[in-house]
From TrEMBL:
Reactions performed catalytically: D-glucosamine 6-phosphate + acetyl-CoA = N-acetyl-D-glucosamine 6-phosphate + CoA + H(+)
Subunit structure, as described in the record: Homodimer.
Upper lineage: Eukaryota, Viridiplantae, Streptophyta, Embryophyta, Tracheophyta
Family as reported in the entry's similarity comment: Belongs to the acetyltransferase family. GNA1 subfamily.
Protein name per Swiss-Prot or TrEMBL: Glucosamine 6-phosphate N-acetyltransferase
GO molecular function: glucosamine 6-phosphate N-acetyltransferase activity
Main location: endoplasmic reticulum
Length: 219
């Protein structure tokens, strides 16, 4: 090999060694391309990592939560407009006796007899309570029920509540007003310390749901 050929060979060998050394230093230092450059390259190639794809799928799946409905259901709205209160003397003129006639025989009576019986019941205080529900539009009595407290010697002089005469006007049945009346009377009895409440009525014949099967009632 002549002189120029030897010089060219040596120069190529040196260049090859420099390139190999530079590669070794890069490999040892663990340097990688800048993150921004990596994301840009991936976006340019239209390639996305599996993690980012899963995140996007989860976002689409969860989405924006739907607002919760705040409007009450029809039955709840109809039930809430009827409040329950104790019987008053003026309720006779609001159809109280007519409502009782949908339950059993209840002929019309004079105002004097009504007031006399009302005062007798009122004299018993919380031990005998008659409640009614009044339609705020027509001012008619549309539901009624009563509870009286039986005082016993059993169970250490305990008390038992008896719910009777539950009736809902036939024009407004199906709005759970009877159940609301029973709950009201039951809470009254329990508030007086009754260890049980007995529901004394025939539910089907009075337009009520068969809730006497609930554990808190005995029929």
């Amino acid at each position: 090999m002549n002189g120029p050929g030897i010089k060219t060979f040596i120069w190529l060998r040196l260049a090859s060694c420099k390139i190999r050394a530079q590669r070794d230093r890069t490999s040892r230092s663990g340097s990688l391309p800048p993150p921004d450059q990596t994301h840009r390259d991936a976006g340019a190639d239209g390639d996305q990592s599996p993690t980012k794809s899963r995140d996007r799928l989860q976002i689409k799946r969860i989405g924006t939560p739907e607002p919760m409905a705040t409007n009450p259901q029809p039955n709840q709205e109809q039930e809430s407009q009827f409040s329950i209160r104790r019987l008053e003397p003026a309720d006779k003129s609001k159809g109280f006796i007519d409502l009782l006639s949908q339950l059993s025989s209840c002929p019309q009576i004079s105002d004097a007899r009504f007031d006399l019986r009302f005062n007798e019941v009122a004299s018993l205080g919380d031990d005998h309570v008659i409640c009614v529900a009044e339609d705020p539009v027509s001012n008619r009595i549309i539901a009624t029920g009563s509870v009286f407290i039986e005082k016993k010697f059993l169970r250490g002089c305990s008390k038992v509540g008896h719910i009777e005469d539950i009736v809902v006007d036939k024009e407004v049945r199906g709005k759970k007003l009877g159940q609301k009346m029973i709950r009201y009377l039951s809470d009254h009895a329990k508030g007086l310390g009754c260890y049980k409440v007995i529901l004394d009525c025939e539910l089907y014949s009075r337009g009520l749901n068969p809730i006497a099967k609930e554990p808190k009632f005995k029929s």
